């Protein structure tokens, strides 16, 4: 009995201590766990946050601030310059140095570069100013036209890649081999591909040889005698078409893979039900497959438009131009690079930043517009 | 043929209305897998014909996709040392003036363009003194290994923190980082140029290495998607056993997420290997730190002046080859990762 009693007492005591201790322990460890969570959560994120803030957000704020000033490469340190701006020094807005670029002289105008971007006229024509077959044009308008022209590749690439993706997602052997082959151009270096295509598009190059045509894809030496306006519409459009062909070829594989993945998620039961109801393949594709594929298509279009607005290397490498922006083919980004970083007359980082801000706004509005279209479709 | 033309269920009354020609047409259509009013094609035949058509379409597409690569290889054996682009024109499969055919110029033989590239390709007054092809390859390796390896680890760390650790303000920080994707790279290009200049990173290796060390948001985003698939119970078990978060991360998460990490790492390796714009904008052409695509751009200018494009195409082959080989080795992993992205969106 005694043993029993002691046992029960011990048990009770143990129970008491257990009841007490866990309550103590329970409160403390949870707090500690939360502390650990918070500390380590921040620590693990810190590098990425630091990198993003420094190289994206700080740069973005700097670009926005600089676009209102007259900062250029020779203005000294950028931090000291921004400090002057915040201490109320009006000289950072002094545009007298560059007012010769615009007809009306401007001083102390924060929006000088934005006005400049929309109203300036640059010489567009072969050769020098003294040869009288060029015109003065707005560089932003011309390059924006080129950039929008390159966007033609997006619908073409979309139709082709949906077509090939549907073919690949049939139940055939070797489908994965085709996926790999179609993806090859995506991993290849743009520079290498461009130098190859540049030779392939020659006057009697492969394209003209295989097709039996004689299309002058690339501007040749004789262009110096052409009037600039005509050159933009005849030669410029041909050259731009060539770049569209190349970028469709290069981008096809990536979208095909996304569509194949999207197609594998299409509901098979719905398809079979439609088949039993007597729908043919065409109807099934439009009424069952496409609605299921729609989110992938939307994602693809949004990302390709954002990427397409930033086209730079392709036209720039196809048609080397060192002294000024090649208005026949260059994309909008060339302006940012040329006027902001590389202008031999003196590169104004401020002008490049202003062009960049305009581009950011355009891309943002385009993306919003697409999301608006998407939301309208759902109603 | 009897199996193919399966004319059951055709009512006898209606048969009268069809002409002989219509009957024959129906038979032919049925042979190719199309059902019509007179003949019904068998499903097997329809599938077979569909497969054959699909193969023809896919093979045609694959030919278009691969042909420029073949042309590139063939072009690198073109003897263009006589000048102009003439040697590159008028042929489609193999150059008419191949380096294998000419014996007069070189003791080296068919690989003349490659030898020219390795010896003299990247040495002219346009380049920094002492720059060579091998220096360009070394630079490219540094630029595409160091930032990628470190950056993938930091991205995975952030992804782990977002996917598996509960901390205050996590979602807000994630949205804050995700919003940075919306900022177009070119629009902050000049500000970055000025920023790097003030940090003393311009015109040396730092500009292509340091920003990559902090990881990329997209990589973190995709690895986060992958980590959501891992069971949280592993982490709970490790916590109960007394492991801290660093131990959990390096001991469990890294090995478990290795496929996703490898795929993202390989993709960013390829991106860095082909990164022409970064080097072109932030590194001076006369610097010895320019990378391979940038050096190819300079080389193209020099050799276009000499009207000798063979070595440039050889350089293109040598630039594309490593990436293609890498992709061929890991294609299953890379394509699988890309497909995962597609099905997630």
Strand coverage percent of chain A: under 5%
Unreliable spans of chain A: 5-21, 127-132
* Main sheet characteristics of chain A: 2 strands, antiparallel
Mean pLDDT of chain B: 86
Distinctive features:
heterodimer; A: 379 residues; mainly alpha; MetI-like fold; 2 domains; two-stranded antiparallel sheet; 2 strands; 69% helix; 2% strand; B: 345 residues; 3 domains; 16 helices; 0% strand; flat
Quick take:
The complex is a heterodimer of chains A (379) and B (345). Chain A is mainly α. Helices cover 69% and strands 2% of the residues of chain A.
How would you characterize the overall build of this protein?
Chain A is mainly alpha-helical and 379 residues long. Chain A has helices spanning 2-66, 78-86, 112-119, 139-150, 153-168, 175-187, 190-200, 206-211, 228-233, 235-264, 268-276, 281-309, 313-318, 333-342, 349-378, and strands spanning 122-124, 135-137. Chain A has 2 domains: 32-124, no CATH class; 131-378, Orthogonal Bundle (MetI-like fold), CATH 1.10.3720. In chain A, strands 1-2 form a two-stranded antiparallel sheet. In chain A, helix 6 crosses helix 10 and helix 12 packs antiparallel against helix 15. The longest helix of chain A is centred in the N-terminal third of the chain and has 65 residues, at 2-66. Chain A is globular. In chain A, 37% of the residues are buried. With 345 residues, chain B is an all-alpha fold. Chain B has 3 domains: 1-41, no CATH class; 76-120, no CATH class; 133-340, Orthogonal Bundle (MetI-like fold). Chain B has 16 helices and no strands. Chain B has helices at residues 12-15, 20-31, 43-75, 112-121, 133-164, 170-179, 189-198, 206-213, 217-228, 232-240, 245-256, 258-273, 276-282, 292-306, 310-329, 331-344. The longest helix of chain B is centred in the N-terminal third of the chain and has 33 residues, at 43-75. Chain B is flat, with a radius of gyration of 29 Å. Mean pLDDT of chain B is 86; it is low at 1-6. Classes of the chains: A mainly alpha (379), B mainly alpha (345).
